[in-house]
Amino acid sequence: MLCLAGGLLAADRLLPPDMSRAEKQALLMQDMRGEVLDGRVSPDGAWRFATKREAVDPRYLALLLQVEDRRFWVHPGVDPLSLLRASFQLVTRGHIVSGGSTLAMQTARLLTPHRHSLRGKIFDMLRGVQLEWRYGRRGVLDLYLTLAPESRNIEGIRAASLLWFGHEPLHLGSEESALLIVMARHPESLRPDRHPQAARAAVARLLATQPAEGWVRRGAMPYTLHIGHAVHEAPGPLLWQWRKGVRGVFQTSIDRRLQASIAGILRDTPPPSGGTWAVLVARRDGSIAAWQGNAGNDCSGCAADMITAWRSPGSALKPAIYGMAFQLGLLAPDTIIQDRASHFGGYAPRNYDRIFHGTTTVRTALQRSYNLPAVRALDMIGAGYFAGTLDAAGIGLKLPPNTSPSLALALGGVGITPLDLGRLYVAFANQGVSRPLSLDWPVEPAPGARLIGARASRQILSILGGAPLPKGRVVTGEDRVAFKTGTSYGQRDAWAAGLRGDWTVVVWGGRPDGTAVPGITGLGTSAPLMMHVFDILPESGTLPTDTMPVQATLSPALQKLGEKRGPQIVQPVNGGRVECFAEDGHVTPLGLVASGGVEPYRWLVNGVPLDTPIGITPSWTPDGPGFAHIALVDATGAGSSVDIRVQ
Q1: What percent of the chain has pLDDT over 70?
Q2: For residue 528, cis peptide bond before it (omega within 30 degrees of 0)
Q3: Is residue 176 annotated as a catalytic residue, yes or no?
Q4: Using an 8 Å Cβ cutoff, are 220 and 252 in contact?
Q5: Confidence (pLDDT) at 368
Q6: Is 0.85 topped by the overall pTM?
Q7: Domain 17-26+37-208: which topology?
Q8: What sequence ranges are listed for the domain Penicillin-binding protein transpeptidase (predicted)?
Q9: Residue 299 φ/ψ, nearest 5 degrees
């Protein structure tokens, strides 16, 4: 006996069952309401989802075992009584009356399909015993529910219930259950969409053999066929999830109705010449509500999904640059900054309109998207620090090969995907905390990474809420959208990213192959489409503003002091002339004095921060005569500035 058991164990290990068919799963994506969005068959071309008996109506299971294997829970995978009965009927009647196959034997044949023969029957018997040995009766039942043929390329009870009836198999009616059972026996001849009369007749015959009580109903067969196939309304998200290894039935955060509405808008909106559109809509919690990676336009590369494509953001990263400068105390919204021709090493950026606007404020510079102030701000915080902070917050940047972060980041000299740009702008709505954008539904709480402080985030939104609107657009009050546009070098990409309430919308327009589209701009091309998308979004709160309570590590008394009176520069006086250079060449440092606001202070001269140790009176030693811009920022982010002439 021990030798027999040892031999069986050795055979089980040397000849394990081939489980590859059961492991090859399809992917069916549903929207947040459970409506089918899109799907993709398994690698071997089947609609197949792993199915557990707990997910199937118990009454279906009872009918299945009653019809296919009454002694399923007692035999070891082969039913000797059924085999004796089948053999006796074959001998006495001269033809096969019943097959004698158990569910374990049928499952063995479904795992490794083969032609019906005596050799194949013996193989199924041995495999049936092996399957119950390895996985138990419950495991065998789960395998059958996963693999049962249900016409066409549909396999398994869950796939059949979803694709034939449009609902999960946990609530199957009597006729639906009977149809799935008879289809598994004759998948093609009882296919209900092609042979409806034969299918209904088979269902009626099966139910007629069951007791006329409980859930089994006589008479009309009220089951109705649903779609029988998967629709294709979200190919981009489908591919994204597939590449991540997601299989089975996956309920997403996408709103199918919103997805369809945006698809209609894109069809009706002429794309950039020779190009296409991409639109991403996300909620404040990071869930993706709509994903349109392309508009179905006919152009080179238009079949690609642009939501995950690397593109130059143009000026769309400027809010993050200023936000970090606010967070570090280097700048404030009303800090005076210069928009003048400057050289940063060998880098000499220009504005898009090739006009320099002189003295301005950070607020105006960001709203008008001036380039020089943004480059100055990035120079203050450091390009490496900026790129590293975004990376630590989960926002990816793609630098040109063999390069390191440089000041060109401020003007789009880097790659970013619309998906990551959406994550950046959702972080502004979340008080500066970056969380992954996800298709999971319900939303799974995810730890966030601090990008900038809450106050800096509100300051950025307050500034962006005053950005110039697209031509012909008027938005006031609760309809206000905080947004930023971007146009990449050479007019290859037109961006618009905006926030309102709980919603963030990112729009990209251009040619997928990266060639230029003369005349496109973020404000003129993509911003109108972004506003159109906001028009169809439901209201959900208002934008945070810079007047909201300060969330910082300051005491209430200091907060009140900072709100009551911002910092003021006492010395030097705005517009004054300061004698620092003597005739003998000696240079006298200029002392800097401030009052009000909340210490510690941070001083900047011509945009460059002064390194002043705590407890030391700040001073500045000019390197030559001329005009100088001196700015002061306190611990709350408030600031003031003066312009002087040094002699």
Answers
A1: 85
A2: no
A3: no
A4: no
A5: 94
A6: no
A7: Penicillin binding protein transpeptidase fold (1.10.3810)
A8: 278-488
A9: -155, 170
